[in-house]
Specification:
The chain is mainly alpha-helical and 69 residues long. It has one domain: SP0561-like. Helix content is 57%, strand content 0%. Helix 4 packs across helix 5. The longest helix is centred in the last third of the chain and has 14 residues. The radius of gyration is 11 Å and the shape is globular.
Length: 69
């Protein structure tokens, strides 16, 4: 079975549908507004930019989490 992967162009709501366990990872990185309706419609890249985070590092962290499942 192939593990799903995320990329920085994915919408946050779509990422959370892949695995709700992604939310704590994003919140721990400083995205405390994950539950906000407007945040759900942003891409990971857009949200990372707003929060001054590196989207590529977040993608790597989330994908490592997904690979371990």
């Amino acid at each position: 079975m192939m593990t799903e992967r995320v990329n920085k162009n994915m919408i946050i709501a779509d990422m959370l549908q892949i695995d709700p366990g992604i939310a704590p990872i994003l919140m721990a990185s400083g995205m405390h507004c994950i539950g906000c309706p407007s945040a759900q419609g942003e891409s990971l890249d857009e949200a990372a930019m707003v929060h001054g985070l590196n989207a590529d590092e977040l993608v790597e962290t989330v994908n490592k989490y997904l690979e371990k499942k």
